[in-house]
Amino acid sequence: MALRNAILAMLLEGESSGYDLAKVFDASVANFWTATPQQLYRELDRMEAQGLVQARVVRQERRPNKRLFSLTETGRAELTAFTARTPRPTAIRDELLVQVQSLESGDAESIRAAVQEKQAVAERKLKHYERTRAHLLAGRTEADYLTKADRVGPYLTLTRGIAFEQENIRWCEYVLEVLEARTRSAAPRT
User: Are 14 and 45 in a shared domain?
Assistant: First the structure.
């Protein structure tokens, strides 16, 4: 998937500045696609040149002017074509997994620390995603939201992010338990 598809999908919510897209990207899309604000701005410029989005300038006093981007018909058509194709299978590419795979020749304490850090990051992300879910639901039940909300895609991708971080936490706990058990069994007995 190209970054452009994630941007096109975010613009379904309506007109947005690059700054606001970066904030929304970090809050909602980051659970399945990452990009820096600089990457977003560069891609928006390319997309505008290709006619996928259009920008209008909003003049501001005491601040730089800002550009608000919106989808064009060409952009909508590209997004529709993207959603119609069969996605490629996903593959895990995780440096920590290579470190864990190399455990016997590696530094077990460094790997333990890396796993603990991954767990802490996953726990922070999970809390953030759960707050986002509560905000989206706004007191409604999930069933009510899924039945009546205008757009359910952002909620469905958020639930995938929640499940992903829950699994990351579960796996980290498992690895740490195994490492602890191996440390106990290898300890000299007195």
Answer: yes
